[in-house]
Write a structure and sequence with these properties.
The complex is a heterodimer of chains A (377) and B (99). Chain A is mainly α and 377 residues long. Chain A has 9 helices and 2 strands, in the order H-H-H-E-E-H-H-H-H-H-H. In chain A, helix 2 packs across helix 3. Chain A starts with a helix and ends in a 23-residue tail after the last helix. Chain B is 37% helix and 32% strand. Chain B has a 5-stranded mixed β-sheet with strand order 1-2-3-4-5. Classes of the chains: A mainly alpha (377), B alpha/beta (99).
Chain lengths: 377, 99
């Protein structure tokens, strides 16, 4: 029992009558034992008051510490919530970037660009086909013209042959007319006319041959030019459409993938915001904890006041009881040994053994310090 | 380009590469096809490795001439580059193409 252990000197605390009989200081064992018991109670009351004061200080300090930490965490989470909200906005803006581009301050969907390119390329392909077909039709037409010219040249050769023969006939007719003398005068006139006609035909044939040669040369030049046009291979230009359509398809597909990822990121950001909001709400526990601890402190204060009042009343009735029994160091040590935090044990030791308040708790709750108030054991 | 006619002249098989330099030979092929009695004339292309834009143009001319003669020109079994060219130029909207 508190304060009696040394006086009973090894007697069991529950065996008080025997102990009192051995240690009676004034000859009346019963009265002496009452005095010892009261002094022991007074000493215990004093120690209880110290314990209560220390507990109240600890509770108030811890309550303040928890509140400060909770406020700090709440502030951080609020900043985190704001950042998450802003991040959601940024991620959402990526959606439009992935699906459209800005042209002259107007958003143009990539799908529309792809459709425009596809239509344009399709139109180009149609025109390439028309060009190829018309070029080949012209080649065939020029070939036919060339064949016709060859036929005309053959005709011209035949005509020249006819003219030459006619000329020879006219010459023979003239000779025969001369032989016939006066009887051949009329025949000579006809022969001369035929000869003149043959000369005119010959001159016309030469002119036609010259014109035909010019025409042949023009057709040959045109055919060579057309051949150069027709032999321009547009195969790669045609296949470029195929390649571009493939690239556009891949571009659209990537845009869709990015859109899906962004949508997922927006959803995740929303969940994070909701979680952070929930954490901020959850951190409001410190209000209830503080109120509960205030009630505990209040109750402890009432007990301490009651003990003080009891001491005062006891002292007024029996002043000799003011002499307290020495503190039971073993009991105090046993109590202190229950504390695993050295800092808290030191404060209790100072308060219990000397009655003086212990050192202020070390509370470094700065934003960047996470170890200052935590003792690992 | 090489070509080989079936006995009734309504079907011809082209092989090798069909380019501008084949325009004289293809003219003969087209004329011979149009002289066949069948209403449907077939150009078999499974052995044709390459066709250029001039080749496409010649097929279009042959198609027009077949149409004027009341015939239908069918392109059969294009492969590889020829098949790709037909797909890009949407030849299937202009010809009957047998796969």
């Amino acid at each position: 029992m508190f304060g009696l252990n040394r006086r009973v000197s090894g007697a069991a605390a529950t065996n008080i009558p025997e102990a009192l009989a051995v240690s009676s200081p004034c000859g009346d064992p019963r009265q002496d034992s009452h005095v010892d018991l009261l002094q022991s109670w007074m000493s215990l009351a004093e120690m209880q008051q110290r314990v209560i004061r220390t507990l109240i200080a600890e509770i108030q300090d811890t309550s303040g510490f928890v509140e400060k930490q909770a406020d700090d965490l709440s502030g951080r989470f609020q900043r985190l919530a704001l950042s998450a909200q802003q991040q959601t906005g940024r991620v959402e803006s990526l959606t439009s970037l992935a699906t459209s581009i800005e042209v002259e301050n107007q958003p143009v969907p990539i799908e529309e660009i792809a459709r425009l390119l596809k239509d344009t390329l399709g139109d180009v392909i149609v025109k390439i086909l028309m060009l190829s077909k018309d070029s080949m039709a012209m080649v065939y037409a020029m070939s036919e013209v060339s064949a016709n010219i060859v036929n005309v040249e053959k005709c011209m050769a035949s005509l020249q042959q006819v003219t030459s023969t006619t000329n020879m006939l006219a010459l023979n007719a003239r000779i025969e007319a001369e032989r016939a003398g006066a009887a051949g005068v009329t025949f000579r006139v006809v022969a001369d006319e035929v000869r003149e006609l043959s000369k005119a035909t010959q001159a016309l044939s030469v002119t036609m041959k010259s014109e035909l040669k010019a025409m042949t040369d023009g057709v040959a030049t045109g055919r060579a030019t057309l051949q150069r046009v027709a032999t321009i291979d547009l195969t790669n230009n045609i296949l470029a459409k195929d390649r571009l359509e493939t690239l556009l398809g891949a571009l659209l597909q990537r845009g869709n993938v990015v859109e899906d990822i962004v949508a997922e990121a927006v959803s995740e950001a929303g969940l994070i915001s909701a979680d952070v909001d929930g954490m901020i709400t959850g951190l409001q526990f410190q209000d209830r904890a503080r109120q509960r601890l205030e009630h505990v402190v209040d109750a402890l204060s009432v007990i301490s006041e009651a003990l003080e009042e009891n001491k005062r009343n006891t002292a007024s009735v029996a002043p000799e009881l003011l002499e307290l029994a020495p503190a039971d160091l073993g009991w105090v040590t046993g109590l202190l040994d229950r504390f695993t935090m050295s800092e808290m044990r030191a404060r209790f030791a100072a308060e219990l053994l000397t009655g003086a308040p212990g050192a202020e708790p070390h509370r470094d709750a700065g934003p960047g310090d996470t170890n200052g108030s935590i003792e690992l054991f | 380009m090489k070509f080989e006619f079936q006995p009734n002249d309504a079907r011809v098989t082209l092989s090798g590469e069909f380019t501008f330099t084949d325009h004289v030979a293809f003219r003969e092929v087209a004329d011979r096809l149009l002289q066949a009695d069948d209403r449907t004339i077939v150009v078999e292309l499974s052995q044709l490795r390459f066709i250029d834009s001039a080749g496409l143009g010649m097929l279009l001319i042959a198609r027009d001439e077949a149409g004027k003669a009341g015939r239908t020109l069918v392109l059969s079994q294009p492969q590889g580059q020829v098949k790709r060219m037909f797909a890009v130029t949407k030849f299937d909207e202009l010809f009957t193409i047998q796969a």
